[in-house]
Request: fold
Amino acid sequence: MIKKCLFPAAGYGTRFLPATKAIPKEMLPVLTKPLLQYGVEEAIDAGLSTMAIVTGRGKRAIEDHFDVSYELEHQIKGTSKEHYLTEIRDVINRCTFSYTRQVEMKGLGHAILSGETLIGNEPFAVILADDLCDNHEGHGVLLQMVKLYEKYQCSIVAVEEIPPQDSNKYGVIAGEFIDEDIVQVENMVEKPDPKDAPSNLAIIGRYILTPDIFDILRETKPGKGGEVQITDALLEQAKQGKVIAYKFKGKRFDCGSVDGFVEATNYFYNKA
Reply:
């Protein structure tokens, strides 16, 4: 059973400057809810109860958000505004939060390795809050992946088809379909040029990882951009036949970009 979800949340959010100069990018709201809260709620819906968050300097707002604000609660208790806190109260009551810091920004692989102390020796999920996902017709993306893990018992990456010219923004996988929407991963390349991309299936910010990934990450040398890439570590697992890719059901918004953030805001506004 997977009970823990890791949230790498130490990045600078440079594409949203100056807004993110003092506000964590994970706390930017789509409508009235921060991106990170959407991710936590997706994890809760998937049956996970322990949220492990890797933060950095200037990210205290994250901890404050997932905590009780006694002054605010007192001010609005018994008023018509009290219902605005119902959702976040429910989140706080249904799970526990633990935090550690990524002291240096050395890539997603390094951020995940920084979270080892919070995870321990067990399989776990990873959600990148920048990737906001919604599946209004059924199970959330992470729940879909948890159900797959129960069958395959290996690392799983969520993938979607992308335009070939966008391959240099993603980790791209290649392999053989072993079931509908499921690929046995044979190769993974981090941000390849379009001419070098092994397929049009790109990894998005949802993972389930087995705990041996930590030992692999410790031995993984910096790759693309001088950073420790989770793609390179997963490739080592894939060589042993221990990684599958899943074409998830639902819609994903790249809220790390202004265009994707605006698209998500309009989508959830029209859905409300």
